[in-house]
Design brief:
Number of helices: 4
Structural class: alpha/beta
Shape: globular
Radius of gyration: 17 Å
Strand content: 15-25%
Distance between the termini: 21 Å
Order of helices and strands: HEHEEEHEEEHEEEEE
CATH class of the domain at 5-36 and 95-205: Alpha Beta
CATH superfamily of the domain at 5-36 and 95-205: Glutaconate Coenzyme A-transferase
CATH architecture of the domain at 5-36 and 95-205: 3-Layer(aba) Sandwich
Number of strands: 12
Helix content: 10-25%
CATH topology of the domain at 5-36 and 95-205: Glutaconate Coenzyme A-transferase
Length: 207
């Protein structure tokens, strides 16, 4: 049995320390904002200029002008603040974010991440990903374990254009939780009934 998207989000949340800041990429990571408990006291940052994101708004409070970097409407908590992109990226580049959770197309054993384009397909831009992978203290990739063709996204070497070199600390997929050390994916936890053999990753790349 693999983890659901919600279980993946909860697994990522369990990795956060209290009283920290986190930036969430578009796609799967946005689920985290909806599920993170208030007692964790984690401040969610969105690079378009919001600090204090708290999940989705209800119908009475939804505003088309209050959005995250993925252009999704958001809710904010008490004490939230708003600022321009220059200040937002000053926070990122200045090392003021504790965590960044990004989606991924490929991650390899050197901690390289490819998550912004597939050659030959329409590209809307990298956004803030390149800054985030170098600015945040801990980079967590949250993604499905296999791509649409059934191939694993955790590889010996990324084949797609890279977002960052040697930047990934932890990977959470629907199959398990992994760290990257000494050019190997270290299995920290597997989903129920998932075996190492079912991961589709060569044995010499696992520990």
């Amino acid at each position: 049995m693999t983890w659901s998207k919600e279980q993946m989000a909860d697994k990522v949340i369990s990795l956060f320390d209290k009283d920290t800041s986190v930036n969430l990429g578009i796609g799967l990571p946005t689920l985290i904002a909806e599920r993170i408990p208030q007692e964790s006291r984690v401040m969610i940052h969105s690079e378009n200029g919001v600090l204090g994101v708290e999940g989705r708004p209800d119908e009475k409070n939804v505003s088309p002008t209050l959005i995250n970097a993925g252009k999704e409407t958001i809710a904010v908590g008490k004490g939230a603040s708003y600022f321009d992109s220059a200040l937002s990226f000053g926070m990122i580049r200045g090392g003021h974010l504790d965590y960044c959770v990004l989606g991924g197309m490929e991650v390899d054993v050197e901690g390289n991440l490819a998550n912004w384009m597939i050659p030959g397909k329409k590209v809307t831009g990298m956004g803030g990903a390149m800054d985030l992978v170098h600015g945040a203290k801990t980079i967590i990739v949250m993604m499905t374990h296999f791509n649409k063709n059934g191939s694993p996204k955790m590889l010996k070497r990324c084949g797609l254009p890279l977002t960052g070199l040697n930047v990934v600390d932890l990977v959470v997929t629907d199959r398990g939780l992994f760290s990257i050390k000494e050019n190997r994916f270290k299995v920290m936890e597997l989903a129920p009934d998932v075996s190492k053999e079912s991961l589709g990753i060569s044995g010499e790349l696992l520990s």
